Amino acid sequence: MIDYRGFIRDNFLIIDEAGNKMPFIFNDIQEKYYQTLILEYGENLQGIRENILKARREGFSSFVEGIFMADFILSTLGKIPIISGQVVSHKKEEVKPHIKRSNLFLDSYLEKNGISRKQFLSQDNSDYMESVVGAEYYVGTAGAKTLGRGGTLQNLHWTEVAFYPNTAVLNAENIVMPAEQQIADDIGKIFRESTGNTLVDFFATEYLDAKNAPPDDIKEFKSRFYAWFEFGNYRREVPPEFQFTEDHKEFMETHGLDKEQMYWYIRKVLSKKGVTKTGEDKLRKAKREYPTTDMEAFIMSGKMYFDSEAVDSYRQKVKRPIKEDLIYVQTV
Fold it and tell me: Which of 219, 230, 241, 305 has its C-alpha lying 20 to 30 A from 59's C-alpha?
């Protein structure tokens, strides 16, 4: 049995939003997700296959990379089999934060236990680590030539997969699917984690396919959505003079929000006006990055024939039927 939460809490440091190094204690949404994983995969977290659709800065990348670094260390200590893990980002400039965070996790463990990196690692490059027993940890970009370098993997983290290259030559499906074949069935962990982009890209197709599968259709991957309001940090004190509109009140009632959550959403999302430098509508972009529903995460990008906000508004008002059944009509 592996207590990942306890190992991460006791050994890893993380940099908080104020820039301080703190013990890595799961936030509320990370804890909620961890309990879900334990319930469905067991405490050793084997055979994980997950599509995670989420809002910005909820901590899923930190969570997954903490799990992967724990595996890297535990395998080096001989507590679990040798692990080869990869973290794959969507563009070069996003690789550095993942490398920095992973190194902080490792360094905080080594410092606490009086071990030098030279004692622990046989290879120590900017994007690749190999431990003295052969465990591997690699951070790179989608489409990099070094992707899949080990031939066999156990852990694979696709971060912001909805924003991977999308050309005829290089696209998410051709990057993701072959690399995942390096991991044996029911072994290791595959996390596809992203905010939404479009309704027709690889990630959206995979997410919706698993989500909408009938009960008797067993899918390899499970789809999860974590709305912005599920993260406890997304709230703000309401000024005494502020008055909520009827639309605000209806929105709060529909989604079960309190006033501090609603006020945060007004300031962070609903107040956005105008267009970005690239010509994207700021309000639609904000709703995509802090979605209230999973469909909102997908339909707020790109251009649609019908207005995307109107489509989402009508969709939310649709009620499920009291009963569903097949009706057969016999013709004469």
Answer: 219
Domain that holds residue 256: 232-271
Beta-ladder partners of 49: 190
Helix (H, G, I), strand (E, B) or coil at 53: strand
**HSE-up of 293 (CA within 13 Å, CB side)?**
16
Are residues 163 and 305 both part of a single domain? Answer: no
What span, in angstroms and rounded, lies between the C-alpha atoms of 152 and 170?
22
- Same-domain check for residues 209 and 241: no
Cβ neighbours for 142, distance < 8 A, ≥ 6 positions apart: 88, 89, 90, 158, 161, 164, 165, 172, 175
- DSSP string covering 277-294: TTS-BHHHHHHHHS-SSH
Strand 13-15 and strand 21-23: pairing? antiparallel
Are both 87 and 152 inside the same structural domain? yes
**Are residues 16 and 160 located together in one domain of the fold?**
yes
For the chain, the residue count is 332
Contact between residue 193 and residue 62 where contact means Cβ atoms under 8 Å apart: no
DSSP 83: -
Residue 329 is assigned to a structural domain of this protein: no
Is residue 149's pLDDT more than 70? no
End-to-end alpha-carbon separation of the chain, Å? 65
172-226 residue pLDDT tens: 999 999 999 999 999 999 999 999 999 999 999 999 999 999 888 888 999 999 9
Q: Based on the fold, state whether residues 124 and 245 are members of the same structural domain.
A: no
In a domain, residue 44? The reply is yes
Looking at the fold, whether 237 and 265 belong to one and the same domain comes out as yes
